[in-house]
Amino acid sequence: xxxxxxxxxxxxxxxxxxxxxxxxxxxxxxxxxxxxxxxxxxxxxxxxxxxxxxxxxxxxxxxxxxxxxxxxxxxxxxxxxxxxxxxxxxxxxxxxxxxxxxxxxxxxxxxxxxxxxxxxxxxxxxxxxxxxxxxxxxxxxxxxxxxxxxxxxxxxxxxxxxxxxxxxxxxxxxxxxxxxxxxxxxxxxxxxxxxxxxxxxxxxxxxxxxxxxxxxxxxxxxxxxxxxxxxxxxxxxxxxxxxxxxxxxxxxxxxxxxxxxxxxxxxxxxxxxxxxxxxxxxxxxxxxxxxxxxxxxxxxxxxxxxxxxxxxxxxxxxxxxxxxxxxxxxxxxxxxxxxxxxxxxxxxxxxxxxxxxxxxxxxxxxxxxxxxxxxxxxxxxxxxxxxxxxxxxxxxxxxxxxxxxxxxxxxxxxxxx
Length: 417
What we know:
By secondary structure, the chain is an alpha/beta fold. Helices cover 31% and strands 25% of the residues.
């Protein structure tokens, strides 16, 4: 079986190549990839090459397939797994498989499995760890977004609070508490807003910040104050690009501070702002991973001692988090389409990945079976004046508040079929 895939050979050395996959063994599964969303973590892997903790040292001689937010269909199942999986099943994968303590993960470490490919071979350890997950939804792109959504869910579960008088930690955000999501209108922040409003445990107050009015306005159209109120959440969008931002944030909390604060930008002033607005027993989650291994910010240790403030960091979700993401999407309780701002084909992977920090917007969604330049959903209407495909897609997304949708995905795949 031939596959076309984007492979990493070293620092900023990505190559789109067609090559033969080996025949699967009784322990493996052959699968077709339909969609993959490009993550900032893939950019980091491309920037660091073999220096990345998950990328093998011999990547120059044994290149790996990149991409870890993918969804597709099973093509052939080895004998060992035929009682659990069958051809035609749709699937998503939890890439953090943690097999025997190893950091190896699909999209970072393997020669024959990664999201930016047409066909892959799924190794036995993915199934052994329960990381090959059935996906029952209609849209493949929802399956791709299950991984980033699971990262958000994991962050909410990792929050913890103390119990007065004993040494027991209570896990998760404070139900009915006060929550702030800082720098929260990027793709992952929007996923957090969605989960905070529609997930199983919700705050009573949710303040979402950014320093860009246009980004805040878009977020407010996706996750509305009215909808939040209907779900028991008072939602406030706040531009913190002002000298008195901390005072405004504290005033919104009733000057008592926040139980849960999540920081979605690896920027020192944002982290320090999060520290300053913590209430008693408040937990700050440093969600966004920095490129700089020496990244530092100040933290008020007087409050650590006397007000029980604390910090936690999360990097990805676990398999249970991903199962929850898939279940919530299948039930229609959350809709990660708000994360997606661009769509492209496999030929767009390399320039998009290497230039990812400079491309404005949210998630860049790739359909690996087609060739198409990376295209902003906001540009569909203009492009549609001369291109019938984009004219059709423009009409479809207009019906869904300019969001990518199941109908849009089906139209795109049918056009290229």
